[in-house]
Amino acid sequence: MSAVSSVLASRLSDASTTAFGITLDPELRSATKPEFGHYQTNLALRLGNQLSLPPREVAARLVAALKVDDLCETPAIAGPGFVNLTLRSDVLAAAVNDRTAFAPRGERVVVDYSQPNVAKQMHVGHLRSTVIGDAVCNVLRYVGYEVIRQNHVGDWGTQYGMMIEQLLEEDLDPETLDLQGLQALYERSRRHFDSDGDFADLARLRVVALQTGDPATRASWQRMVDVSLADFEQVYARLGSALTRADVVGESAYNDDLPVIVAELEQDGLLTESEGASCAFLPGFVGRDGEPLPVIVRKSDGGFGYSATDLAAIRHRVKTLHAKRIVYVVDHRQALHFDMIFTLAQAAGWLPPTTTAEHVSFGTVLGPDGKPFKTRAGGTVKLTTLLEEAVERADALLADRTGIDRAATAVAVGIGAIKYADLSSDRDNDYVFDLDRMVAMSGNTGPYLQYAHARLTRLLTKAGETSGLVTVLEHPVEQRLALLLTGFDDVVLQVAETLQPHRLCTYLYELAAVLSVFYEQCPVLRGENRSSRIALCAATRQVLQDGLGLLGIAAPDAM
Ligand code: ARG
Fold it and tell me: Which atom of ligand 1 is least distant from the CA of 313?
């Protein structure tokens, strides 16, 4: 709730206490129609129910005890006993004028996101994780958390043993390989591994050499990591992602902790030997066949897998990073994995009740055929190609504009379009990657919101004054716009709680829609109350800019 609406809420519950000796949450909501005022509560209906009194009578007594003269017009009772509240316009104006920042919470959130894999191209799934993760980080920081980004890069495991052994056999200098070369090397080594037992044995020994820190083996591995990270960084730069190399804490970082993980689980009696592997069986986790599902902590060949690394990561994030919340932005297919990992980490005491772990899952990106997005040959679509295509489309869109920095604007619009499309529907849904729809200037799109912002910027430049205050809010549309503006922080808080960025998109889209009605009905530069309306426009521009910024989307001044 905005500051003013939370004050109203507590006044309502005070009134309920005074009149009936019962304290309930008024569940204050925005009014559903302008004629109902600004806010609405069904408190009297709930009280009436509890006290077996007619709700309208309860509403009358509630309103009599309600002290809101300093904030509202006279409260109204409507329908079966709703109480409708309308802010005094000077109060509403003041709420628009003074926006205050959230206070620091003194709490840390670790956000695990992006997580591409070494020696492989980033694909659209990694795009989603990166875009959603950036937005989630921005929102959490805005509401006062201290945010620690962790890019849990897939850089560990048996495949590196295979690849390094293949490299040696072909006498290839790892310095000469780019990401594509690495990917091809991976495929060759895989085939070799599957068809040649002697090679497979060597590859296994090579994994041991890697895990125990043999210098030459580590150097080859490091080269593969460096080549891949450099490539990822190019994608991040193009995307305007906040991720840097300092945020990379890959699977390999937990190597030394893995034996400790096993030892502690063993001590707690949580491990069972099963077909040579060390597994944890958790109550309630069974497969389709009714067989208990294991978390495989150590594989039968002694190697550690994805689960062991994730357990070590949780332990580190709680014990060393002191996280209150750990957030994993990973596609929905890993829901069961995280469910089991969190449960096991709780059982082992690594994840205490004072820290929450949340899987922020997301759906699949689909191609035009409605199937998971792939190239015609069935390979993964290169992310950079997609991003360049979006920028080209945006550039074409801007062809007839003059007086703008076309190249920079095309990047802002093209990349913004992709991000907004990804963020604007419920993240659990799949969506079709459709560039035409994404770059459209109308509808619930990134460019539409960017345009609303640019248009406001142009208007404010024309107006010439920027520092005035909102003083008059007479027109109903003016009031609606103002009221929406005061709800921004509330929406951002909701996103921080639910980690659902689409709620912010929906809000911004509504704001832009109300803004366009405002333009039609309330002339700004030549109308009455010029300076107040200019200030209202400036506040709207600021909220659009902040909102887009939280989504990781640029807001160019002209387009
Ligand atoms: N690298 C994995 C993948 O590409 C995702 C890692 C997710 N994060 C984690 N802590 N498990 O599928």
Answer: 10
Burial level of 250, CB count in 10 A (0-12/13-18/19+)?
buried
Nearest CA to ligand 1 atom 2: 115
Q: How far apart are CA 376 and CA 381, in angstroms?
A: 9
Contact 556, 408 (CB under 8 A): yes
| Residues pairing with 328 in the sheet | 112, 359
Residue nearest to atom 4 of ligand 1 (CA): 116
Ligand 1 site residues (CB inside 6 A) read 112, 115, 117, 152, 154, 310, 313, 328, 330
CA of residue 132 to ligand 1 center, whole Å: 14
Residue from 369, 304, 306, 368 nearest 333 by CA: 306
CATH number at residue 313: 3.40.50.620
In a domain, 258, yes or no: yes
pTM, two decimal places: 0.95
**Residue 96 domain-assigned (yes or no):** no
102-154 pLDDT, tens digit each: 999 999 999 999 999 999 989 999 999 999 999 999 999 999 999 999 999 99
Residue 190 located in a structural domain: yes
Using most ligand atoms within 8 A of CB, pick from 225, 330, 336 the residue to mutate for ligand 1.
Answer: 330
Helices (H), 156-214: 158-169, 179-195, 197-211
Same domain, 309 and 351: yes
Q: Hey, what are 215's tokens?
A: 């210098």
CATH number, domain containing residue 467: 1.10.730.10
Take atom 6 of ligand 1 and give the residue whose Cα is closest: 115
* Domain membership of residue 234 as a residue range: 158-245
d(CA 243, CA 237): 9
Residue range 500-527, pLDDT digits in tens: 999 999 999 999 999 999 999 999 999 8
